[in-house]
Amino acid sequence: MDSFNSPTTKPLYRGTQIVWYILGFIEIIIMFRYVLKFLAANPSAGFTHFIYSITYVFAAPFLNVFHLTSVQGSIFEWTTLLAMLVYWIVASGIIKLFLMGKTVSTPEAAVKMNKEEAK
Description:
The protein is mostly helical. The protein has one domain (3-118). It is 67% helix and 5% strand. It has a two-stranded antiparallel sheet.
């Protein structure tokens, strides 16, 4: 059976698209948080407050990992960059797990196993 025509290929592809889309959304809103903090945006402004509110849940686990670097009101929030990195690593891991469920032919498996042995 050709792995490209496997009945599991399309759902795996859609699953990976969903994971990348969710990651992209989270990364973008966290990046807004980072930029707003860096540019010392007014936290009581509507947009700024909205971004800080929705990103807090994603940033909260990392907020005390590093000290904030502050220069004349601008905040370099290292923890936000850490959060982005961790979420990217988690998404990549989920994608790898999805791809482990992909159907492969015996010749494909043999080639991949030989590459793994050569490492």
